[in-house]
Every structure is written in C-alpha cells, then in structure tokens.
C-alpha cells in the first residue's frame, strides 16, 4: 500500500512540475509549525487569534490560582483557589485542542487539491 502511495505522490509531483510549477508549491506538504501558523491567516484568522488570547489568559489565571492553592494555609482557602485552577486548566486545554481539527482539515484539503490537479492534468492530455 505504501509503495502505491509513493508512486502516486511521484506522479503528482512530475505532472505538477511539467504543467503548473506554481501550484506545486501551494500543494506541498507543510510542517506542523507552518501549518499551525497558517491558522492565523485568511478570513477566520481573527477568530483563531481571539481563541489563542483567551486561552493564554485562562492559562495565566489558572497558574496564578495554582500558586495561591499551594500557598494556602487552610483547607477552605485551598479549595477556593484549587477548584478554579483545575477548571481553568481544563478549559484552556480544551480551547487549545479545539484548533486541532482545523489543522487536520487543512491537511485533507491540501491532499484533495493535489488529487484534483492530477485529474485536471490527466484530462488535459486526452
């Protein structure tokens, strides 16, 4: 199975090099950090920025609450700081993870574009 995927990949690369070299760059596989940075581009980039800012604020408040929790002298004060700290940490992680499906969607769309370009190149030859 892996061999046929490599052959298809090589075929896509050669067709794109011949017919549309500018599209080859747009369909190349991106690294994780490049893909993560692309979240902040486009029409919905501002939404991702707001999500990131909210997540950072929640994380900072959670860390502050955790420090206060560990410095508490009695159980009631520890509970008052520990519970918000735990809840905020869980929320911050959940908000951060909400961006992961977007990354996977971008990878799938990029692969679909590659296949579309291959089909277009194949139909133009006939």
Describe the structure.
The chain is mostly helical and 126 residues long. It has one domain. 84% of the residues lie in helices and 0% in strands. It has six helices and no strands. The longest helix is centred in the middle third of the chain and has 26 residues, at 45-70. The two termini are 28 Å apart. The mean pLDDT is 82. Keywords: Membrane, Transmembrane, Transmembrane helix. The chain crosses the membrane at residues 44-69, 81-103.
Secondary structure layout plus pairing:
Layout: H1 2-19, H2 21-27, H3 32-37, H4 45-70, H5 75-97, H6 100-125
Transmembrane segments: 44-69, 81-103
Pfam families: DUF6768
Keywords: Membrane, Transmembrane, Transmembrane helix
Shape: rod-shaped
Q: How many runs of DSSP E, i.e. beta strands?
A: 0
Average pLDDT value? 82
Q: What is Rg? A: 23 Å
Low-confidence stretches: none
Approximately what portion of the residues adopt beta-strand conformation?
A: under 5%
Q: Summarize the helix and strand pattern as letters.
A: HHHHHH
Structural class: mainly alpha
Largest sheet: none
Work out the helicity level: over 70%
Separation of the first and last Cα atoms: 28 Å
Number of domains: 1
Helix tally equals: 6
Can you summarize this structure?
With 126 residues, the protein is mostly helical. The protein has helices at residues 2-19, 21-27, 32-37, 45-70, 75-97, 100-125.
